[in-house]
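Fold it.
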Amino acid sequence: MGVITDKTAATGCTVVTVEDGAVGGVSVKGGAPGTRETDLLSPFCRVEEVHGIALSGGSAFGLDTAGGVMEFLEEKGCGLAVGPYRIPIVPAAILFDLFIGDGTIRPNASWGYQAAAAAAAGEFPQGSAGAGTGATVAKSLGLYGAIKAGQASLSQALPGGLVVGVLVVVNALGDIWDLQGRLLAGPRDPESGRMRSTLEVFQAGEAVVERGRAPSDLDIPGMPGGSNTTLGVVATNAVLTKVEVSRVAAVAHNGLARTIRPLHTGWDGDTVFALAQPGEQGSPTAADLIAATAADLMARAVVLSLQRSASLKGVPSWQEIQAGE
């Protein structure tokens, strides 16, 4: 994985490269997605090779990062062989972060190229970095009541030499809850500072998306609802079919739902990709094992993305809020 981070503009991108190709799948469950090449990942479509995934801030402008990843991979001779050409297949998804920093600066193809060139195995920046640089959560009362989030990655070794890894970038409208059911990050009331749940705000009819106005100068009057989205990638060395890897992507959303509430709203573009080894059919139970493990890792990574993020552009981090209590 490789990242580009611009904390002045409060945006960035995160790129996963698979130079030898992988079987890819995707599950888009949010109501306001921004994506590229996701139709190709359907089990009904012919092409199975995926050579990279681009996740980016910058709203729809950020989809340009995939072009830069393609350029880098083509230079390395990677991609789908079509006659004398190599065509890298690089699906992409974006999140909305234009309001937190300088919305005129957005990730583009050059950022995607640089992130792909910097991609390496092992540790990579977590928290307020890469596509998670400008990520925030708990925004039903507007950006004033939001809390900083970001990106995180976890992996787990399984019996038989299998490995599952996940990457998540959390920019949700909803709250973050821990696995014990405790509210970690909910919208903060602009007057009392009390943390509430998004469901409570919705039930009271106080959500910014309903009022069409904002409670403070940190908010944007008429802020569009689709300014959220949680993005994820599951990667495994298991041999899976395109149908199976698509199912893994779908089940991984269950992990998000354990720690993000509400999820898949009309204001979120929640999208999860999955990558697996190509080859003949593997173990009949491998797909279910990988999917269940990915869901557990996703749930934990969501919490980690909150805990490792730093305050930015007036939006406090979870650590800052904890320190002030």
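The domain at 2-324 is CATH 3.60.70.12 (L-amino peptidase D-ALA esterase/amidase).
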